[in-house]
Amino acid sequence: MKRTILAVSVCLSVVPSGVYAVDWSLNSTLSQSVELNDNPFLRALAAGTFSSYSTIAANATARMPTSKFTFDGSVSYQKYLGPGADGVPSENLQGGANFHYETYGKNNSDRQYLDAGWHRSSTAFALLGQLAIITNTRGFLDTTTVGGGIERSITALDSVSLSAHSTYTSYDPGSAGTAFIDTSASGTWRHRVNPIATLSASSDAEFLHFDNALNTDITILRENAGIDAALSPLLSFRGTAGVAYVQTERGIPAFSLVSLTPNASSSGSVADFITNMVLTYKMFPDTTLTLTGIQSVSPSAVGSLIKLTSIGAGLTRNVNSRQTLSFAADASRTTSLGTTSDFLSGSIVYSYLLAKEWTAQLSYRHLHRFATSGSPSTGFTIDPITGIPIALASGLGPADSNSIMMVVSRSVSILPDGY
Fold first, then answer.
1. What is the DSSP letter of 373?
2. pLDDT of residue 385
3. Do residues 171 and 139 make contact, with C-beta atoms less than 8 angstroms apart?
């Protein structure tokens, strides 16, 4: 394979300059993770599991004088073992590919680009990973995405960007869930006030259409204003704040109780505050403190809306050229499908550069879930919009989990930049 790529790149490089001259790079990463967790699914009666994660990823980039093409692909396999995995989907094989093409002029900040991607994963694992719902749902969740955008500097101090993307989510077999289309368009204006501060304003419109019996439509409009500020050589702040407006047509109003029965005339709307803020302080040359605050409203992998509120802190220390030690803690609340859950978590991560291409990481994490509230009954129901099973809240009490994970990865530059 390497010889073939070299031969192709040599052939392209002999073409007259400025016509088809291409610089190639090809990189791959192989990682293996193992995890011991005494209660990974936050059940009332804790039971431990052993988990294994294997991932192969590759990146290929072709650079030309005024354009660039990038391909990213990955395949991963996940397996649960142990008493804690009883009644839980035990394995997941997933993978995908993304393509990116962009062109630019003498100023690389002025560019236009196109994106395309496809990804497949187990439906049960998608529900488990994003919504913490344990089901015996069979089959796969497929997503296909296309999009593009443009960025322009209109003055020495001002720049604008426009983008649009559309994702089609389907199930295999089709009876496993409700297919839907998620289309979004956004525009952002940035103005550099002075050397240390830049102001921004953005508008985003997202439309979800579900292929269910009611043809449910959900519209999400977001308006944000923000600032990037280098307050000092050691302190910086980046943040946005605004409002999200959610309108539901022919379906359950956003974040309402799942006991409501939608019909052709059902509709509702809600407006809420959204923000994304990061404060970074370089306490010492080798130590960085980060404070974050987030509140967002967005669709999950299966189309159900999630409201997330989170505050957190992280501390990273570069011990030396080979070792890094990180501490993190956060408190969060998620609201989705009529239920609200509160979490506290803390983690410690130690990273070590074993050799030029090899890295190892050892981490410990504690997670606590408070009693979930919001739904008036126990058991499961079927969400009429997304077609997915919902674990009702009164069956979810407080729970704790402790996790120890080891990750070993190797990154190889098969074809360095410049070939």
1. B
2. 61
3. yes
Ramachandran assignment for 193, one of left (phi > 0), alpha (psi -120 to 50 degrees), beta (any other): alpha
- In one-letter notation, the amino acid at residue 376 is P
What pLDDT is attached to residue 267?
Answer: 67
Tokens of 289: 């403190």
C-alpha to C-alpha distance for 77 and 385, rounded to whole angstroms: 30
Asked if 15 and 22 touch (Cβ cutoff 8 Å), the reply is no
SS3 content of the chain, % helix, strand, coil (to 5): 5, 65, 30
Over residues 376-418, the pLDDT tens digits come to: 444 445 565 666 555 544 446 788 999 999 999 999 988 776 5
Long-range (24+ apart) CB contacts under 8 A made by 85-88 are: 85/49, 86/47, 87/134, 87/136, 88/41, 88/128, 88/134
Prediction pTM value: 0.84
Give the integer Cα–Cα distance in Å for 103 and 157. Answer: 22
CB 42 within 8 A of CB 371: no
